Amino acid sequence: MFKIWGGTDGLDGAWRARSCRTGSILSSRAPCLVFILRYELNDPQLTRAWMTLGRAIRLAQVLDLNHLDHLASICRSTWDLYSPLPTTQEQAALYILETYTSMRAGTPCHIDLAQVRLCLNLASPGELGPDFEDAHMPLLTENVNLTPATHITSYSGLVLMATLSRQCMRHVMQSTIAEPDSPPLRPGFWDRHYALSQAINDRMTVLHAHLSAKASRAHPAAFSLLVNLCALDLYLHEAAIAQADRQDLTPSVVAESRRRCSVDALKIASTIRISYPVSRRDGDILTLQRTFIGWPLVMSMRALWRELRTATDLTADGVAGSLRFLSDVLDAIEGENGYWHHHVAGVGVTLQRWEEEHDGFGSLLRQQDTKTSRLDTRRGT
After folding, report:
1. GO biological process: any one (predicted)?
2. pLDDT one-digit tens code per residue, 345-372
3. Higher per-residue pLDDT: 106 or 301
4. What's residue 197's pLDDT?
5. Band (13; pLDDT cuts 50, 70, 90)
6. Domain boundaries, given as residue ranges, for the chain
């Protein structure tokens, strides 16, 4: 025993290891479950991913990881230095992955900021202060106060995007439930819509350094952040258009929402276009991010699909080209019978009909689209 644990302090070390053995095993399983969840989200079926997600959320509750950055947290008060403490980034990864899973399945999230009172700081950008400590970052809240001067990493940007996604998802779910006798203090649909629209604009201002074409080509997290923020804005305005139809409002009420949908859809297409590799490899950006760009792809294709049915001759060519390109990208990251393909099953028929009406112009359009994509990729390299 003395030889194993090293000298006369071996008994002390053995006692400490025994006392924190349970905490060490559980805390080491937390990041393992996150990694497994990240892998299982690639599967077309979410059955195993849901099971792993449930285990990870339950384990986080047991270990009190939702309050990891609180000084009085149970995990900080019961684990000593010999027990590996999960990092804020690992718990934030679970927060992000649950958001993607819930958005794909259309179900509410369990790690809710209001109910769980999540106590996690945003990831530090690595800057050291005068005392050689990490720069203090604010706690994650739905209305966290950030300024353009605050240095936010692209990873923290994904956490902020996940928070906005949860708010928008709750907003859309409330809009589908009839509220004839809503309390007077409860905000209505349009109040929530304009507040969320402003919140998305504010976050884009703070995260502008990660939303450029150069950043999206250089970093997969920035690429995912840009396309998902655009898809989130599109999702919000699509809900506004649907609500206006239900209330029989005049088209002028949602004219701005229709414009924003078109802008966001084309922005997603252009972002993916400049990041599209000339030769596909296992490590290219689309392969690495295929789990997280399926939803933006589908949202963009739906908007362009609707736009193509009402577009004029002056705009139809560009819309059809972008829609064809996104359709090819979806085929590249997912099988023909994949989950996201079922959501845009009618796009191919619409494109084929459009090409027939334009005397085979679609084949020339695809050739030109391929040449443009290769040229943009070479410029990026």
Report:
1. DNA-templated transcription
2. 888 888 888 777 776 555 445 555 555 5
3. 301
4. 94
5. very low
6. 1-95
Residue 62's Cβ-side half-sphere holds a number of Cα atoms within 13 Å equal to: 13
- Distance, in Å, from the CA atom of 146 to the CA atom of 206, rounded to the nearest integer, reads 7
Tens-place pLDDT, residues 275-315: 876 555 655 778 778 888 999 999 999 999 888 877 666 56
Q: Which pLDDT band, with edges at 50, 70 and 90, does 179 fall under? A: low
Provide the angle, in degrees to the nearest 10, between the axes of the packed helices 47-62 and 88-105: 140
What HEC string does the chain produce? CHHHHCHHHHHHHHHHHHHCHHHHHHHHHHHHHHHHHHHHCCCCCCHHHHHHHHHHHHHHHHCCHHHCCCCCCHHHHHCCCCCCCCCHHHHHHHHHHHHHHHHHHCCCCCCCHHHHCCCCECCCCCCECCCCCECCCCECCCCCCCCCCCCCCHHHHHHHHHHHHHHHHHHHHHHCCCCCCCCCCCCCHHHHHHHHHHHHHHHHHHCHHHCCHHHHHHCHHHHHHHHHHHHHHHHHHHHHHHHHHHCCCCHHHHHHHHHHHHHHHHHHHHHHHHHCCCCCCCCCHHHHCHHHHHHHHHHHHHHHHHHHHHCCHHHHHHHHHHHHHHHHHHHHHCCCCCCHHHHHCCHHHHHHHHHHHCCCHHHHHHHHHHHHHHHHHHHHC
What are the backbone angles phi and psi of residue 180, rounded to the nearest 5°?
-70, -35
